[in-house]
Amino acid sequence: MSRLDQLVDAARDGVRRRSGEVPGERLRAQLGTRSGHRPFKEALIRPGLSLIAEFKRGSPSAGPIDSGADVATVVQAYERGGAAALSVLTDEPNFHGSLADLEAARAASELPILRKDFIVDPYQLWEAALAGADAVLLIVAALADEDLRLLWDEAAELDLDCVVEVHDGTDLERALELDPDVIGINNRDLADLTVDTTTTPELITDVPAGMTVVAESGYSDHGQIEELERIGVDAVLIGESLMRAADPEEAVRALVSDEERTREHLFSDER
Questions:
Q1: Could you tell me whether strands 63-64 and 58-59 are parallel, antiparallel, or unpaired per DSSP bridges?
Q2: Is 54 labeled as catalytic in the residue annotation?
Q3: Which CATH number do you get for residue 203?
Q4: Structural domain range at position 181
Q5: Residue from 92, 127, 154, 216 carrying the catalytic annotation
Q6: What are the helix and strand counts (H, E) for the chain?
Q7: 173 counts as catalytic
Q8: pLDDT tens digits, residue range 123-151?
Q9: Active site annotation includes 42
Q10: Which terminus of the chain has a lower count of CB atoms within 10 Å, N or C?
């Protein structure tokens, strides 16, 4: 069994447990109370390369990162630093996240939010909408074609944007059947958790013009960001290096700011 299979099985177990506590019918009945949608995909196509800053407490590959981090403190720092959107890890058994983290991020920031999880059931989409997510991640390798289409259609009904994540050419072919607005290219192979940052430049050449591309995994410095922008990537998702930063606000600013914007920031601080 690959690592991805284990992660998907854990996600299905979680859905079974939570739906036993709160049935899907009851969850769906609450959807009318959902607060206003924030445009996630539009945040990724502003001038320059957009940063999706991620809140994550740990991961299978990195282990614990900052289990005691305060969501509001971190995401507000991301927002001040210039992030275009947020990603919040809600997987509990492997990433130590929760829907409570997503709810806290929604309350603390005005930025649109991606629920980052192993989405395998419509129940998770209803949870995402109620917790304040504006978008969800659909991992092609984790889903059969019929399940991928089902979740895609249900997300559209809920006005949730989708980042459709691929890792190789086969994933991309399957993803394009949906005609998605946003393709996420994950440099991490979820079968064994290894990272190869050549994946994004190799795959982006096969992404049709007009689709928004998000690069994921393996990025931590401004030079990498400049290279991604050069090859046509629209946004980058970064989590671990930001969560480990002593000053998350400054870490975000260092990633997204060119020299002119940095001078403007410094000048405004001096006034």
A1: antiparallel
A2: yes
A3: 3.20.20.70
A4: 3-31+40-270
A5: 216
A6: 13, 12
A7: no
A8: 999 999 999 999 999 999 999 999 999 99
A9: no
A10: C
